[in-house]
Amino acid sequence: MLMAQYTGRKSLAAIAANTTGDGKGLTKTLGPFSLVGLGIGCIIGAGIFVLTGNAAANYAGPAIALSFVLSGIACAFVGLCYAELAAMIPASGSAYTYAYATVGEIFAWIIGWDLILEYGMGAATVAVGWSGYFVSLLDSFGIHIPAQWADATGAAVKLADGTTATAIINLPAVLIVLILTGLLMFGTKESTRVNNIMVAFKLFVVGVVIVVGAFYVDRAHWTPFIPRNTGTFGNFGWSGILRGASVVFFAYIGFDAVSTAAQEAKRPQRDMPIGILGSLIICTILYVLMALVMTGMVPYPKLGVADPVAVAIDVAGIGWLSVLVKFAALAGLTTVIFVLLFGQARILFSIAQDRLLPSFFSEVHPRFRTPFASQALIGIVVALTAASFPIGLLGEMVSIGTLFAFLLVCTAVIHLRRSASEVARPFRTPGAPWVPLLGIAFSLLLMLGLPLATWTRLVVWLAIGLVIYFAYGHRHSLVAETPGAVLETPSAEDA
After folding, report:
1. What's the CA gap between 406 and 447, in Å, rounded?
2. What's the pLDDT at 220?
3. So what's the pLDDT on residue 436?
4. Would residue 137 count as lying in a domain?
5. Looking at the domain assignment, is residue 5 inside a domain?
6. Does residue 369 form part of some domain?
7. Is 382 within the bounds of a domain?
8. Total-model pTM
9. Helix axis angle, 319-353 to 105-140, nearest 10°
10. Whether the Cβ atoms of residue 147 and residue 158 lie closer than 8 Å to each other
11. In terms of residue numbers, what domain contains 106?
């Protein structure tokens, strides 16, 4: 019985039964526009304002535009797989739900626990970055937040008088997380409307920078477009384009968060592919255009700073645009935190529905139709994490969890094409199995490039998760109570 439970798969019929509108679950309020907004909100953050310049200065030069194209293609392979599964299995939970339908309960738990890490650490990381931008913006208006109230607890900070002190708490990071948590608790429709407004403002500013900056482009800065390699792999030349693609790949992380909203989409079979692929296409175009404009405005070696867009604007003498860019960077980071908090609550909601976690996480507020209590708990934990830990330590844990999820989603498409070939697919990944296999290959390649310390932390986190699963999850899961009624065990033909 135990082995059958660990490898048992949740049937597609059982998943569909959990998504029916019975008035007790999540409200279906999201259309294609809101879903694209969620994707853009999570993808376009500090990456377009910071990562582009650093990657151009250190790896690819003006050809960083080609790096973005290459990364966009790699993400498209994974995005096409996400689109098929999200339309086929329109349930919240993202890769966790897909794993339950393909490789079994224990593997679903592992990937779900991994996603909790990815989304939680991601939100905390971006909140710390938001704090830095916010303090900088206030400084430009003559408002100064004491350093000990804007850094990780225990960190050594330098005060205005030149002396050093010990940081108490990163207060701005705490406040932005709690504010966004409050929005999410009081209604999906209302909170996504705020997100859409911020996304619209962010896109407007990015568009202004691209259009205005185009008039200041000096084509001489694009020559040579692909700088000569220095003799070291990854330092310019074609290998630099590849290295740059590996770096800027993480600027695309976030489109998978759209799939966590499948259960709240009005017409998920149609709208989920639009949300996932639409946000990917729009962001790829904007990344490429921004890269071309920035490297055309100033020589690429000057862009290796924390605020490359501001540097390009200052060199061009467009002072009025500098403050607007800072506001857009804040808006960009705000929407990233928003979507990550949103996604984490939906993943916990799905896991708790399967009773692998206490029912507390799947309780829906009778009026607001949101996972009210679990969203509040998530906000508190993320706020405390952002308040207490430095951005470097937090950021290291995000990438490997994301790539692990990408790998599993591509594998799930291949598996379900064989084991559930008769199930209707409103959207089909073209070129299967080659497109999913390419998604797997890219994910594995990038995972192998991560440092050993990151792998070690992931193993520790997963070990903690397995302790929780064996102590609570497998004893209370639906399959333990109703074996065979909800889950199906893989046959020898599927194995």
Report:
1. 11
2. 92
3. 94
4. no
5. no
6. no
7. no
8. 0.76
9. 160
10. yes
11. 28-126+182-360+401-488
